[in-house]
Amino acid sequence: MANSKATKKALFMSMLSLLLCFTMLMGATFAWFTDTVQSTENKIQAGNLDVQLLMHNGTEYVDISESTTPIFGDESSLIAQNNPADTLWEPGKTQIVYLGVRNNGSLALKYNILLDIVSEATGTDKKPLAEALEYAIIDEKEYAANAYSNWNAVKDAATATGDLPVGKGIPTAQNGVLDEIAYDSTKTGETDYFALAIHMKEDAGNEYQDGNVTIDITVFATQKNAEEDSFGPEYDEQAPMGHPVSNSDELKEALANKLDNIVITKDIETNEAYTVGYNVTINGGGNEIKRADGYTETIFTVATGNTLTLENVVIDGGGVSTYGLRSSGVTATGNLVNAETNSHIVLNEGAVLQNNVGAHAVNLGTRIGATLTLNGGEIINNSSDSGAVWGGGHITINSGKISYNSSTGLAGAIRMVSSCNLTMNGGEISHNTATGDGGAIWGYGSSTYNFNGGEMAYNTSAGVGGAIYTGTYSVINISNDFEIHDNSAENTGAIRLTDHTSLTMTGGKIYGNTQGDNESNAFNTWNNNISITGGSISDNFSYVGGLGLTIGAADIDGVISYNLSTNHNTAYLAADFNGFKFTVNEADEHFANFNFKPAAGYTYTEGDETKLVCMNEGYTTYWDATTGTFRLQAK
Fold first, then answer.
1. Higher-confidence position of 182 and 111
2. Residue of 4, 297, 306, 616 with fewest CB within 10 Å of its CB?
């Protein structure tokens, strides 16, 4: 009996302990301590690279970076303004100018200075005056009056001396590196000072009388490995300095020697072709390479497997054309840029291909794997019988323009051959015109078009397809914020889809396109597979029989005109469709059998039939529960 009582007592205590534990656990789920820490306003600030060229004017250092007044020269030069007697030269004369390179930005930089020397031979024996001159650089030298007694004293103090060659690329005259400065673009940066001395040789004879020399000074600057990332300051140590060229011979020589990052320092007129046999960037510094009168052939050829990147340079074909009217200038037989197998052409900001009349701006060949990429570049005012861009490669437009080009045949802007891919993420294809089909683009079969962004606008065709005329078995995808608007043609304002082409529209806008007598028209189809599940269409368009039409949650304000055959009298609706207007251009049993079939998963909601507005006079749409379709009936 005692054992029984003890056992009951033990069980009772155990249950009580479990209950207490459970109660504590219940309480624990509501008793955790908490705290929150938030870091806000985290901002990444990009640095800027800004370099100035300074000169001492006798009183102080002044910025001459953008000055059009020469340092040396006649009475208007900077030297003459300080001492008018310094304008004319004779044997034995020495002139010293005190210069500086200032870092006016927020990033550390390294720089080169180029002396570009052009001499006109006007002396008795027609010898260029530059042959009679010699140069010296005195590094880390600020202005000091009467610092040197004669040319020999200058040479002794110089860090580089000697005659520089005439008529070809002048070597770098000075190298320098400015140290890291504070990340504050409002502060004045460091300045690296030096003196440039020019001396006319004492033995210069009469053959140099009346000669003249033009000396241009150019500063090339790039990042120095001073700023750090998570792994140290070395990430930008390979930033290229650039190899300057100032004429056609120098450019040809630089390409032959496979120099990196070529920089054009002057406008170049060319009467020869350039071959690009390696991956290279050509920066024009805002200058142009122009085809000379009498030269009609290709300017650049990108050899197999190589990449030519152009930026801040104009490649000019030398012709003058306005919408196909060849009024003056060179009529070309060659392209501005020609691509060989698996080669690549990249047009960055400031790169312009223009005024090629008679041939293409870019030729990508036929199914050879060549590509064209626009990253801000432009292809403008070119004229041929088949587009400014021709070929079967891959064309990508991220930003930039293909505009104001014209064709006396097909394709105002781009003439695609079979199996060509065009991707448009931004930029514009606009104001192009063709006397044949395809105001902007004429495509051959089995091509793919991905329109993800940008716009195609104001293109015109005297034939079919104000913007695009596709080839058979092609694919068109329209999405995101791409817009196709205000294009016009005699037939089909925006896009003419040829046999077995598919169109998928999940976004974007189609509006303002016209055909014929200003009749609203987006596109015409024949035997095509079309899916419109997003975006908006405000123009009318036609669907002529074919593979199938699916309409979903798109915003369609225009009128869809159906021209259906016996075997194709059904249009398909996505489970979530918006309202639109339609017209059925058939009679008898074809009209009577026409219906809209919703996708699997659709559940009829009363009033959905009012979304489908029948524009045929005297008819309306109703829901047929027996067949699970929307059909037509007399009002």
1. 111
2. 4
